[in-house]
Amino acid sequence: MDLSISLNKFISDTGYCSRREADKLIESGRVLLNGRPARLGNRYEEGDEVEVDGSLITAPKKDKLVYIALNKPAGITTTTEMHIPGNIISYVNHPKRIFPIGRLDKDSEGLIFLTNDGNIVNKILRAGNKHEKEYIVKLNKPAEQGFVARMSTGVPILDTVTAPCKVVMSGRQTFSITLVQGLNRQIRRMCEALGYSVVSLKRVRIMNIQLGTLATGKWRNLSDAEVAMLKASVSGSDNTAKASPKVKAAPSERPRRESPAAKPEKALKQSAKPAKKADGNNTPPPSSPKKSSYKDYRSKGKRK
Q1: Helices (H), strands (E): how many in the chain?
Q2: Residue 113 has pLDDT above 70, yes or no
Q3: d(CA 256, CA 259)
Q4: Which pLDDT score, from 0 to 100, does residue 12 have?
Q5: Looking at CB atoms within 10 Å, which of 130, 192, 237, 243 has the fewest?
Q6: Edge-to-edge strand order for the sheet containing 31-33?
Q7: Rounded CA gap, 108 and 88, in Å?
Q8: Cβ-count burial of 264 within 10 angstroms (0-12 exposed, 13-18 middle, 19+ buried)?
Q9: What keywords are assigned to this protein (predicted)?
Q10: What DSSP string runs through 26-69?
Q11: Does residue 277 form part of some domain?
Q12: Long-range Cβ contacts of 153-162 (<8 Å, 24+ apart)
């Protein structure tokens, strides 16, 4: 496999100048490739020496992968949009360009990961992976008998019914809930559907990584063991597989324009819905020898 890159791209990647300017340098004989005058179209391979005006140009260092666990305070918005007041990126103020894995409501607090590893983001967030997330919730009033059964077996919200989940009461008004879904404000909507409102909501676990004693508002680097555990948990995941349908979040809960890092989370916003019936525009013309199904039309990209 050819791992070489064009010489002008290599020079540009080092930050020395643009590709166009690199071509001009090459044309004017100011660039040497392994001690010989470079020519337009030359390619750079790892280990080659490149000189510009007698100075050695070194390959850019690969950005070290960062994995952070943050105990997000309430009031911080999970977005990379820097113009949004209280955005999570400005709050963490990390020297490297990082982005959050998934979302945590502005009003909620607790464990959230941030990283510059785009590959693992998609694997974690893809709806089919069914990764567990555990929360501690406090209600506005004591839970009535049957609350646990109704919450754990599925609650109708957002035109669907939530997937079965684990619910354990820890007090008259507090409980823990473990989800494998990520519908928009799911826990709050579930409680509201049963006649309660959420006073506080805190995420304490994502997969096998615990929030532990990390103070509110503080962050730490994941240990090597935790990173290895994280990668092992998604080793069989396909980060290119199709996600489940999208659900719009309430306007007050997310910025108008969503960042690239936040997009994978949309895959968790809604469980699968029944397929819509094809409308008149999808009906094949009378001359068609065979009436295709809606599925066939959708797979051929003909649905408008």
Answers
A1: 8, 17
A2: yes
A3: 10
A4: 82
A5: 130
A6: 36-37, 31-33, 50-52, 55-57
A7: 13
A8: buried
A9: Isomerase, RNA-binding
A10: HHTT-EEETTEE--TT-EE-TT--EEETTEEEPPPPPPPP-EEE
A11: no
A12: 155/189, 155/190, 155/193, 155/194, 156/193, 157/183, 157/186, 157/189, 157/190, 157/193, 158/183, 158/184, 158/189, 158/247, 158/270, 159/273, 160/270, 160/271, 160/272, 160/273, 161/271, 162/186, 162/190, 162/271
Residues 37, 29: contact at Cβ < 8 Å? Answer: yes
Shared domain for 82 and 25, answered yes or no, is no
Per-residue pLDDT at 60: 65
Residue 137 lies in a domain: yes
- The pLDDT value recorded for residue 151 is 98
Entry field: residues in the chain: 304
Pair 137, 187: CB distance under 8 Å: yes
**CATH assignment of the domain containing 93:** 3.30.2350.10
> Is residue 272 in a domain?
no
DSSP line for 118-184: HHHHHHHH-GGG---EEEEEEESSPPPTTHHHHHHH--EETTEEPPP-EEEESSSSEEEEEES---T
- Could you read off the pLDDT of 34-73 as tens digits, one per residue? 999 999 999 999 889 999 988 888 876 666 889 999 999 9
Q: Burial of 167 by CB count in 10 Å (0-12 exposed, 13-18 middle, 19+ buried)?
A: buried
Please check whether residue 103 lies inside any domain of the structure: yes
| Residue 166 C-alpha from the chain's centroid | 24
- Name the residues annotated as catalytic: 105
Structural domain for 191, as ranges: 67-233
Q: What percent of the chain has pLDDT over 70?
A: 74
pLDDT surpassing 60 at residue 219 = yes
- Number of domain units in the chain: 2
